[in-house]
Amino acid sequence: MSLKRYLSFLFASFVFLGLTYHTHAQQDAALIRMGNGIAAIAEGEIITIEQLRRELEPIIPRLRAEARSEKEFSESIDRMSREVLQNLIDRILIVQAAEEKGLLLPQSYIDQEYDEVLNRDFGGDRGRFLEYLRAQGLTAREFREKIYKRVVVNVMRQQNRKSQSEISPERIQAFYIQNKIRFYQEEAMHLRQIILTPIADEGTALLKQTAKTIIQELAEGANFGDLARKYSQDEMSRKGGEWGWIERQDIRKELSSVAFDLQPGSYSQPVELNNTIFILYCEAKREELIQPVTEVRDTIENVLVGEIARETQERWLQQVRENGYVRYFL
After folding, report:
1. Which one in 42, 48, 107, 233 has a CA-CA gap of 20 to 30 Å to 17?
2. Rounded to an integer, what distance in angstroms lies between the CA atom of residue 238 and that of residue 137?
3. 215: Cβ–Cβ under 8 A, 6 or more apart, which residues?
4. How far apart are CA 234 and CA 199, in angstroms?
């Protein structure tokens, strides 16, 4: 029976967000028909259908929620099942490769991971932890062995992900040319504001007089930040009216049309909107552009290093798979 047909049968046999449970006897009978419940054998270690089901179980609600139809749900389960089974196989093969390599892990690595699991998943409650082990049919020693294997897999993956390759200027330039749109920057400005709002029912007459005073002080050379700290009635006043770098869409059109007409070091006349008065100041300005390669070289290099590392790990994992013995039963 194909994996897809098997999974359709298996997950139709119990409730998962609207599906109907079958009896344990029916499930057991199905497992017997599935080759005594064996999904695969890797390096002599059996991966059971029950293991596969347990790994898939937490993922099912998300797949169900994301699926737009039963057909799409079935296809998602099929795809995810293959990935999960391959991952289970890879773990076994990687541990085998580590043993052949003679990898030695300090006991402190395992102890630390064991304690983290106990604290993270069980709140440090050993009683809850032991109940979980009993429910899973595991002993504490078997659980520690699982942790050991997990740590080994993580260490081996990390070791084989590292890349010491230097990225050539030619490769950086090629990436930049092919991905220029990634380095596009919208027009932006570094904005400061003084915001005046009426207190109670005082109206805007007093605000207009205050705004006039502020404009006069600015004309006489007063520092905009100091005036913002003195007059502005918003949460940014203590920071000198500092709003940082913004793009046009970040503020209302009535304000952005005024703000983006300002030149660095200049301020606007008062702008009244809904009984609130704004005085805007342009600290600095940046035109829309595609950043030059000199400014994004480090970013590109980091992306390429990551790509090379993933390619290196994938080649290593493929070699591990080719050197290992795996037999599929689904």
Report:
1. 48
2. 61
3. 267, 269, 270, 279
4. 13
Cα–Cα distance measured from residue 175 to residue 289, given in angstroms and rounded to the nearest whole number: 18
Q: Give the fold, CATH level 3, of 187-287.
A: Chitinase A; domain 3 (3.10.50)
245 neighbors 189 (Cβ within 8 angstroms): yes
Amino acid at 287: E
Do residues 61 and 17 make contact, with C-beta atoms less than 8 angstroms apart?
yes
| Tens digits of residue pLDDT in 147-182 | 888 888 888 887 776 555 567 888 899 999 999 888
- State pLDDT tens for residues 198-225: 877 777 788 899 999 999 999 999 999 9
- Sequence spans of domains, the chain: 3-101, 107-159, 187-287
Q: Under a CB-based contact definition with an 8 Å cutoff, are residues 60 and 11 in contact?
A: yes
Phi, psi values for residue 288, rounded to 5°: -65, 140
Radius of gyration of the chain from Cα atoms?
Answer: 32
Q: Rounded distance, CA 278 to CA 255, Å? A: 8
> Residue 211 in contact with residue 233, Cβ under 8 Å?
no
